[in-house]
Automatic annotation (TrEMBL):
SMART domains per record: DeoRC, HTH_DEOR
Gene3D superfamilies assigned to the protein according to its UniProt record, in alphabetical order: 3.40.50.1360, Winged helix-like DNA-binding domain superfamily/Winged helix DNA-binding domain
Protein's recorded name: Transcriptional regulator, DeoR family
Origin species: Paraburkholderia atlantica
Signal peptide span: none
Annotated spans, Disordered: 266-306
A GO molecular-function annotation: DNA-binding transcription factor activity
Every HTH deoR-type domain range: 3-58
């Protein structure tokens, strides 16, 4: 590739992904890390790129909010995950959807569905899906985070515990080597656990960039979810972990996992026993009384959206 074409391609990748690393650019352009460093150096000097920890980014991204920047990061992978969720969720289904950037991409994809019942703590997601294709959207209220317009706090947890839904769909900060799902903030974990308690199927979404990393708080182990949705096949290590936990793993081209067959035959997955279908004539998202205690939540700290 000619140097001018290489420069243009680097700028295009930076535009689409937000922040990109030297290694990612080298792989995408099939050149060495050193070639990428030589190419980006004049781009930085000309003010077309900014050097950040571990890579480079466009100057325009500094003017965006952190949430909007994260919406650009790994955008293609997040859109793949969103399409997988759109194939899982059918017209008329009910779901709890959390506030991460991956879930916001999911909400955009779900605009092709109709008659959904959606419970969320995200103002952005509520805005995308409300008054659209006959959807019903319930917005959990609480302290609003300035970064991503997500509601936090005990009122949010109490609110979502009123509902019984088919799917709880959440994102995470990281998936560590042991297959544990990790989050950066305790209140993200509290939301996830509350949502999973009200769903027949517990779904985690995570692009491949989240794997092989860790974060501050453990949200759940592999055997505490029903479905993992990602953008590409898992490597042998992770595939073995989630197969042993009987987790259905969905990615483009994936075949139906044994759990899918079991559910179709009427048996219950790990998340089914405590939340059976409501009686005939009641909505899948019918409100019900709850005596669950409300977990303590953190206040006054910046929210780390996923």
């Amino acid at each position: 590739m000619y140097p001018l074409l290489r420069r243009a391609e680097i700028l295009r990748i930076a535009q689409s992904q937000g922040t990109t690393s030297i290694a990612q650019l080298a792989e995408a352009l099939a050149v060495s890390d050193e070639t990428i460093r030589r190419t980006v150096k004049p781009l930085i000097e000309e003010g077309l790129l900014i050097k950040v920890h571990g890579g480079v980014m466009l100057p325009s991204h500094l003017e965006e909010s952190p949430f909007r920047r994260r919406m650009h990061e790994h955008r293609a992978e997040k859109e793949i995950v969103a399409q997988q969720i759109c194939e899982l969720v059918q017209d008329g289904d009910s779901l709890i959807l959390d506030s991460g950037t991956t879930c916001t991409h999911i909400a955009q994809a779900l605009r092709s569905r109709s008659r959904l019942t959606v419970i969320t703590n995200s103002a952005a997601i509520a805005s995308l899906l409300a008054q659209h294709n006959g959807n019903r959207v319930f917005m959990a209220g609480g302290e609003l985070c300035a970064d991503d317009a997500a509601a936090l706090g005990e009122p949010v947890l109490a609110y979502i515990r009123q509902f019984h839904v088919k799917y709880a769909i959440v994102s995470v900060t990281a998936v560590d080597r042991a297959g544990r799902f990790m989050d950066a903030q305790p209140w993200d974990v509290e939301f996830t656990r509350a949502a999973f308690g009200q769903a027949r199927r517990r779904v985690v979404v995570a692009v491949h960039a989240k794997f092989e990393h860790s974060a501050l708080v453990r949200a759940m182990n592999a055997d505490e979810i029903d479905v993992l949705v990602t953008d590409a096949p898992l490597d042998a290590h992770y595939a073995q972990i989630f197969a042993a936990a009987r987790v259905e793993v969905r990615y483009p081209g994936s075949a139906a996992a044994p759990m899918t067959v079991a559910l179709a035959e009427g048996t219950e997955g790990p998340g089914e026993a405590a939340h059976r279908s409501p009686p005939r004539g009641l909505s899948d998202a019918t409100c019900h009384a709850s005596t669950d205690s409300i977990a303590d939540d953190a206040h006054g700290e910046p929210h780390h959206a996923r």
